[in-house]
Amino acid sequence: MDIFAKCSEFTAAREAIAGGYYPFFIPLDDTEGTEVVINGRRLIMIGSNNYLGLTTDPRVRQAAMDAVAKYGTSCTGSRFLNGTLKLHLELERELAEFVGKESALVFSTGYQTNLGTISALVGRGDVVITDRDDHASIIDGCRLSYGEMKRFLHNDMNSLERVLQGCDESQGRLVVVDGLYSMGGDIAPLPEIVALCKRYGARLMVDDAHAMGVLGDGRETAAHFGLTKEVDLTMGTFSKSFASLGGFIAGDDDVVHYIQHMGRSMIFSASAPAANVAAAAAALKIMKEEPERRTRLLAIAARMRSEYTRMGFNIGQSQSPIIPIYINNDEATLAIWKALFEAGVYTNPVLPPGVPPGKSLLRTSYMATHTDAQMDRVLETFNSVGKKLGII
Prior knowledge:
Radius of gyration: 21 Å
Number of helices: 15
Number of strands: 14
Strand order of the largest sheet: 4-10-9-8-7-5-6
Helix content: 40-55%
Largest sheet: 7 strands, mixed
Low-confidence stretches: none
Order of helices and strands: HHEEEHHEHEHEHEHEHEEHHHHEHEEEH
CATH topology of the largest domain: Aspartate Aminotransferase, domain 2
Number of domains: 2
CATH superfamily of the largest domain: Type I PLP-dependent aspartate aminotransferase-like (Major domain)
Strand content: 15-25%
CATH architecture of the largest domain: 3-Layer(aba) Sandwich
């Protein structure tokens, strides 16, 4: 059996490309944040995680350019060896203070942050417990660990308690949840999760990749609920509100110190370049100094949730600027994606295995820099296309 045989047998993507309904890896000619240019056509972007609109902010751009001028384009080594700059340490101190923890550790990507943190902490004889809707990087971090992985039904506290009850008291227990879920746009019920973790002696890690700059006072899900001190580990990424690339874990100093020396995804990867670190630091400064960005973002999100619901679209349990449009049929999802795309609105179709079978959706997300006129056009287009295709 040729191990490459499966490659030639995989034809679904090529068939979609030939049929003109392949929605992935679309190259952007240009981007201004709220709008993109594709093959000379301008589209309104409602498929980005650029929640605060900082990727094109002149201050963030300048910080990245200044860092390249001073440090070059790469550290050409891992954090563990020659790849730690003073910039990394300064940002770690600022991030730890921002999320109310003793220490923070910067990784090259958010994905690597979850891989390195979970696999470092969860060893033989330990158990890691995840929500069924947790991000793939959390699941892969569990797979790379030597511990046992258990899962509970999404945001179902009875399910979580049953899993915790089934754990042996001799096992180390780590519960890992998303703070703000990247597909459904709903928020983890942290007060109930914290109470259960305390009752059963489990530690709690929250992936706040999509919550930073969005929830609470702009920090993270724990701050949203007033539970900053009750969450053991807070994870964040730079590829959303921070307008860069990278990630970090924050917690007690001895825990972060341990991850720093045991996290294989950090030890054996090149460190985040100076430009990425400087851009994230500049974005963090703006996030703290301009809370009106978050206020604007939340106002846009509230309007869009209300209007989609009024039209008759199913947006699930969204409580955030991430608003899914549940179509629940793969072919219909691709059809409405293509119709919107051709009408000048860029969304993200999400099909199984990205979502459970029968739960296909359009993932839409919004930016503080979207204009009212842009949102008017998006709503008009959704209404027209939805009616034409019989979705609403």
